[in-house]
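Handout, section B. The chain below has 356 residues.
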Amino acid sequence: MWILLALIITAPSWAFPVLHFIKPDSSFTQITTLDACTTFSTTVDMVKCNPALFPYQADQGLRMGGATITDGESVNVGQKLILDPIKQDFLRDLFQKRAFNSWAANSSIELRTPKFYMSYDPLLINADIFVFNPASPEVSMSLVKSNRLKVTSGWEVLRNDTLRFSIGGTAYYYRNQYFRDSFFLSDLATKKADQLIDFKKKNGVAADLGGALKFENRFLPKVSFVVKNLNSSLQNKDQDITSENQLRTILTYETYSRLGFGYDYKNSWGIINGEINLPFRDVYRELYTEYISGSVGYSLSRFSTQVSYSKYQSVLGLNFGSKIATIGIFYGKSRPLGDFSTQTENVSGVRFEVSL
């Protein structure tokens, strides 16, 4: 099944970024921490935050889940662009609607064993549409369709009285179709809809790598290292930029890396955890200072809550569960276009998982 995703590219200074709460393989913890969860070794979905946490996971069996935002108008726009045939009249209607539409969703089927996780992502969606310049209306879009098949595993390579060190990795095969460009309302007079929105295709193999360091001295923080999307075909290349009005989705499919510092406090009333996460372009080449995120959370048995913040995003999440199923709800605020626009979006969404 082909599905919609947003193309990731590091934004040049004159292009504007789009920020998403939900990403291709987001767990509920990733959504509600803004990815500041790479040192969390006590959550059921910790391996998606950092594959190096695999040795500390306990859950086994078959697990299915999905997540989406609940903004009905944006969902409707995204569905018509990707899941339905694109029609000329609908593109004309885009110029009459609100300036910015953004939709995100994902789903996964995952087999968990003591040695590895194997998962298939049948539905991955990020759609971004921005209409601007009323004098000569122009619409900018960032869209991609994709499937993924992934294998994840990890090992604890060092454990003594001083520290623990583990490593892990995820290898995945992807099939992408994507569109990233802008066009004017006047273009609809001379071109058909399928000529304006022409998807490119990319298939390949990519990987995530991670490391996790925990000191036995409880006063020292835990440290994590994660590199995402190595060998991804969706990279930042100047020659790919054909319009300064193109949307740029940040930290989703490009190769980027993270450095995390976290701390857990456990007592009979539950666990309090926190992390500061620093994202870098490519493999620790340049710090993305605007996307540094921090999170603080509390969990007790199958209940957890999380509060997180970054320059352009903030989110509150509540997660309730049992051995069979979990459901999470989240509410967030975002400036999806970063410094390009002061427009603020209120976003709410759900994440559900079922264990068999």
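Note. The longest strand covers residues 138-159. Compare this with the example in section A.
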